[in-house]
Amino acid sequence: MATLLYRLGRFSFRRRGRVAAVWLLLLVLLGGAVAAFSGSTTDKFVMPGTESQRALDALAKEFPQASGATGTIVIAAPEGRKLDPAAVAPVMKEAAEIPGVLAAMDPFQTGAVSPDGRYALVQVQFEGRLQDITEAQREAYLRVGSGVSELRVEHGGEVMITAPEVGGSEGIGVLIAAVVLIVTFGSLVAAGMTLLNALIGVGVGMAGLYALSGVVELTSVTPVLALMLGLAVGIDYSLFITSRYRQFVAEGMDPGEAAGRATGTAGSAVVFAGATVVIALAGLSIVGIPFLSTMGLAAAGTVAIAVLVAITLLPAFLSYGGARVLPRKQRNGGGNGGGTDADRKGFGYTWGRIVTRLRVPILLAGVVALGALTLPAQDLRLALPDAGSAAPGSAERRAYDLTSEGFGEGFNARLIAVVSAADAQATTAAAGQAAQLIQQTEGVLAVTPPQPNATGTTALLTIIPKAGPTDAATENAVHDIRAKVAAIKGAEIAVTGATAVGIDVSDKLADAMPVYLLLVVGLSVLLLMLVFRSILVPIKAALGFLLTVGSTFGITVAIFQQGHLADLVGLDVPGPLVSFLPILLIGILFGLAMDYEVFLVSRMREDFVHGDTAQQATINGMGHNARVVTAAALIMAAVFGGFVFMDDPIIKSMGFALAIGVLIDAFVVRMTLVPAVMSMLGRVAWWLPRPLDRVLPNLDVEGERLRRHLADEQTLEAV
């Protein structure tokens, strides 16, 4: 691999104009494809095979007028007064006149008026599904009641669900990344080229994703996740190759040769690290959940492009940079290229000596600390976000709060029981029996009379729980209702609605998480065995990954679910974590953890193979790479952390968890626990049984074969 990448790096360096032109042309073409073919994103989470999804599919077929998107307009009279039907009538009339609206229900006929007569709910039924609702329809819906005086009118329901806006939050991370690059390199040219290279990769990846959005249904979170990962790994991968290039140039190597060797050595590690991220993300497809598979594949695509850009476009940019990639001091003949006694007094060497000397207490302290941080994870609860977690002041949040104020939390968690039978008589009997059983279920506040379809073969029961959408009591009520109605003979009864869909999504993802974690850990052991040709190093890496994941879950649960220090991240209402966050976090952190493992440990193995003692090789690995890994981790954490400033609770929790996970893995696990364990293991760390040694292919990530190949070429030239 290293030899192939060496040739690719030299080619890109020499043919810089052509390589740069190809990538820029690709960016322009994909930009045109976005303008021509892009579609809209959706916040609808489809979960094939679940009861709630089967019920929704049945509604679309048997009760199409009730299968479209819905809205809820909340009306409140001034304190101490009751609503007058004459005052509510204009609101209903205005809502019914919105294009695409089938009906606006009179709350005085449906009974959707609070006991004190002050609050009312107007149910608005749209013809189209949520993904079919246009911005014009949504804006018209928001204007309903604007001319009504003395009444408070708020607009909620699923029709208010919109894609999160990505504003300047990601820009904060990019600015911090730029500062870290400038400090790390001491050169504006090196920092600028590295950042520009990553941004072009992100542009290509995001343009390709949006170009496909016209034929592939994307959730609104998918592009944000792809952007988040593309930026982070794009900057980091370019950083690693640029750092190695600067090292070779500072040692006096010809720039073209330096570009080839940097791409062959650091580029090999980048390819492997990127491959682990891609495999982990693409592996989300095995869970069998379409929206999660799409998210994983989209993010994997942006990471793959980041790798390709790093090993092709970056060498071309380095050709343009020349000696300006070095700090001014080194360009003027001062400083040195690395590897001298002066360098060995740097932070990385000092920290490596401290860790290897105090390895036992450091290892114990690190494991105990991370174990303690993991404890809150045992209370982990999962749910899809609802309007109660929306940004304070947003329309959907105001409607949610006003509904809770007038009717109670349960009116925001309404469920629908779909009753289907062979004929109208059987449907009516089963619906009546179901209503009686559901009303007797703990956690249920009320059940509405059955609403039949035109043929009478399908009827709907609206169920009002006592607790909110993400409350554990509501989840228990859903499971109890399903267990009770399953005993009714002669009819098929399914419970659905946004709350039920969220519960089904959470249950399915919770069941899939242990299997996926086992897959990822097993994959890490196998891949690292190929890279390092060792048994114990992969096992150590996998155990370190488990510590990272556990502590990250614990901290995220403590803040986002339990509410500790929630104000620091701008969290208004603590609650369960979004259902797909844990399994997504496992996949992403696995790939990123392997990044740092490869960059640190490959140098340790390289020096050990060339004759250093195991302890000195560990110190050398830290000395050579600690500065770069520190910069990479800070950049990645800054990019992820920038998304914490977004109002959307899903994006906020994802950005926070990924930022914390990267910091823990880089600084506690990889740069502290890993050298401590490697120092304890000594030569045993590199033990590999001979049968395995013969069977496993040699990937040559650290470039041993490349060095031998170049040495042989130099010998032949000398002869």
* CATH class call of the largest domain: Mainly Alpha
Under CATH, the homologous superfamily of the largest domain reads: Multidrug efflux transporter AcrB transmembrane domain
CATH architecture descriptor text of the largest domain: Up-down Bundle
The termini sit apart by: 28 Å
Keywords for this entry:
Alpha-Beta Plaits; 5-stranded antiparallel beta sheet; alpha+beta; 719 residues; 11 strands; Multidrug efflux transporter AcrB transmembrane fold; 4-stranded antiparallel beta sheet; 63% helix
Brief account:
This protein has 24 helices and eleven strands.
3D structure, described in words:
It is a single chain. The chain has 719 residues and is α+β, with helices and mostly antiparallel strands. The protein contains 24 helices and 11 strands. It has helices at 2-14, 16-37, 51-62, 85-96, 107-110, 135-143, 169-185, 188-212, 221-250, 255-282, 290-321, 328-331, 347-357, 359-374, 395-407, 424-439, 472-485, 498-532, 536-561, 581-609, 614-642, 649-681, 690-695, 704-718, and strands spanning 70-76, 101-104, 119-126, 152-156, 382-383, 415-420, 444-447, 451-452, 458-465, 492-496, 577-578. The strands form 3 sheets. Strands 6, 7, 8, 9 and 10 form a 5-stranded antiparallel sheet that branches. It starts with a helix and ends with a helix.
